[in-house]
Design a protein that fits this description.
This protein has 270 residues and is of the alpha+beta class. It is built from 6 helices and 18 strands. Strand 10 (142-143) and strand 11 (146-147) form a beta hairpin.
């Protein structure tokens, strides 16, 4: 993914979303070993040996006091994002400075309810039928009067009509908002779990999801072994609200993680 520098000297994605941590190989003896990744904050000249062991070493003239660089979940998430950004180019990092999402409905130039096909699992379908009062065949795509069932974790497909979701109203709003599937409830956000030691995306096993949730709830940001990273779909133009702020960001991260990985949280870690 192309990177640029913004006016503050920070790395950027090339489209206005800042990436305050730029990844570069470590070359200083004793830092992280040959070939191990380190993360340097471009605007402050501070090197971090890994996402998990995020310990700033600021030796440059004019470096800020150490307490201003105290490691937090937000610090770890930004460092983790710098490591994984090239693999998820369709998404942008969401931090406390990110504007809040506001659905533009009929004023939206993209309208996610038109280009995207929405998948449902059995839980989504059961909730939709219960809340809407509609029969299954009126909710999902059918063939010969029977629901189309795909060999996937989310095997059903929300019905479409005239190039859009069947339940998209003329005003650009959802006519079954309270019954909407999980994919619609999550959009435009998603959470990725990053292995703090390796700096790469890892699978959402029950144990890792529990560790990520514990890191969110820990005022100190956790130990950095599993780092939850909140992302937003770049195609969505609805980020026009006020900045999330630290507490708003943490709450959004937690709510998104709990909803997205609800099945993993319901299981006991192995």
């Amino acid at each position: 993914m192309r990177q640029t520098r913004n006016a503050g000297g920070e790395a950027g994605s090339g489209d206005g979303w800042p990436l305050p941590y730029a990844r570069k190989p470590s070359t200083r003896p004793g830092e992280s070993g040959a070939g191990a990744p380190s993360f340097r904050r471009a605007s402050r000249g501070c090197t971090f040996t890994s996402v998990a062991n995020l310990r700033p070493s600021c030796n440059g003239v004019g470096s800020p006091p150490y307490h201003e660089l105290a490691v937090s979940l937000h610090d770890r998430a930004r460092a983790a994002w710098a490591a994984i950004a090239p693999r998820v180019a369709a998404y942008a990092f969401v931090g406390p400075e990110t504007p809040a999402f506001r659905c533009l409905s009929s004023d939206c130039p993209v309208n996610c309810c038109r280009p995207f096909t929405v998948a449902l699992d059995a839980e989504d379908l059961a909730r939709f039928t219960r809340v809407s009062g509609l029969p299954v065949e009126a909710i999902v795509e059918c063939a010969d009067g029977l629901p189309v069932v795909l060999p996937l974790t989310e095997p059903y497909v929300l019905a479409r009509h005239d190039g859009a979701c069947k339940f998209l109203g003329p005003d650009g709003r959802c006519t079954q908002y309270d019954a909407r599937p999980t994919a619609c409830r999550l959009y435009p956000y998603q959470v990725l779990l990053v292995d703090g030691g390796a700096g790469r995306i890892t699978s959402p096993s029950p144990g890792r999801v529990q560790a990520a949730l514990a890191a969110i709830d820990d005022p100190s940001g956790g130990d950095g072994e599993i780092v939850p990273v909140l992302l937003a779909h770049r195609a969505c133009p609805g980020f026009a609200g006020p900045p999330l702020g630290i507490e708003g960001w943490r709450q959004l991260l937690r709510e998104t993680l709990v909803l997205q990985f609800r099945h993993a949280l319901a299981e006991q870690p192995a």
